[in-house]
Design brief:
- By secondary structure, the protein is mainly beta.
- It has 2 domains: 2-83, Gp5 N-terminal domain (OB fold (Dihydrolipoamide Acetyltransferase, E2P)), CATH 2.40.50.230; 86-146.
- The chain contains 1 helix and 17 strands.
- The protein has one helix at residues 2-16; strands at residues 23-31, 36-41, 44-51, 55-57, 62-67, 75-78, 83-90, 101-106, 110-114, 117-122, 125-130, 133-138, 142-146, 167-169, 172-174, 181-182, 190-191.
- The strands form 4 sheets. An 8-stranded antiparallel beta sheet has the order 4-7-8-9-10-11-12-13, with no helix packed on it.
- Strand 14 and strand 15 (172-174) form a beta hairpin.
- The longest helix has 15 residues, at 2-16.
- The chain is elongated.
- 8% of the residues are buried.
- Residues 174-200 are annotated as: Disordered.
């Protein structure tokens, strides 16, 4: 009898003071600004819920919906399993400070920036920039260096090396062609001082 009375009191209290527990659902719609999303829970949809993640939730991503202050009008979506894109700032300086690092990611590309260093990854290309120096890599066209390049170890090339302008090796200038020579009677073959195209 005592248990029944307690249960009745609890049931009456809950009827007047319902508890809004966390719900598990999937994202059906999301926007970056404002940060709002719709979440499907079972057969019902909880619309226009706020979220605070540093990215836009992916459609069909799993998440939890919690109700702050046990208020059904204060829903908050958290714990997303996937994101369509992420954009965040990392660092201890105030938001927007150039000393903070920035990260931007999506299915199409990944971008990292820290002061004068920037790296961008795409499905078939890579770009790395440090100040005015730049490295470009593409699956179709190969690698391009913009700026001075220094090799501090041996370099072995299995294919042709083409130099469009002057090249210097141990103080000797090369211009991508040979040095024809002239014979002088009674002397060793003399190499011309300036390189000329082969066959000239």
């Amino acid at each position: 009898m005592k248990g029944g009375l307690v249960d009745a009191i609890v049931a009456a209290w809950q009827k007047g003071h319902p508890m809004y527990y966390a719900l598990s659902g999937t994202v059906t719609k999301a926007s970056a600004s404002p940060k709002r999303c719709d979440v499907k829970v079972g057969d019902a949809t909880v619309p226009d819920i706020e979220y605070t993640a540093e990215g836009v939730p992916a459609i069909d991503a799993e998440c939890l919906v919690v109700f702050r202050g046990n208020n059904p009008d204060q829903g908050l979506a958290v714990g997303f399993s996937r994101f369509a894109s992420i954009e965040m700032e990392v660092g201890s300086a105030p938001a927007g400070s150039p000393t903070n690092a920035t990260i931007k990611t999506s299915a199409e590309k990944i971008e990292l920036k820290l002061l004068q260093t920037e790296i961008k990854l795409e499905p078939t290309a890579l770009t790395a920039k440090v100040g005015t120096n730049e490295l470009l890599g593409a699956a179709a066209s190969g690698w391009v260096f913009k700026g001075p390049v220094e090799f501090q170890a041996d370099v072995h090339m299995k294919e042709e090396l083409t130099v469009d302008k002057k090249a210097t090796v141990n103080g000797i200038d090369f211009e991508n062609h040979g040095h024809p020579y002239t014979d002088e009677p009674g002397s060793i073959a003399k190499v011309t001082s300036k390189a000329q195209p082969l066959g000239a």
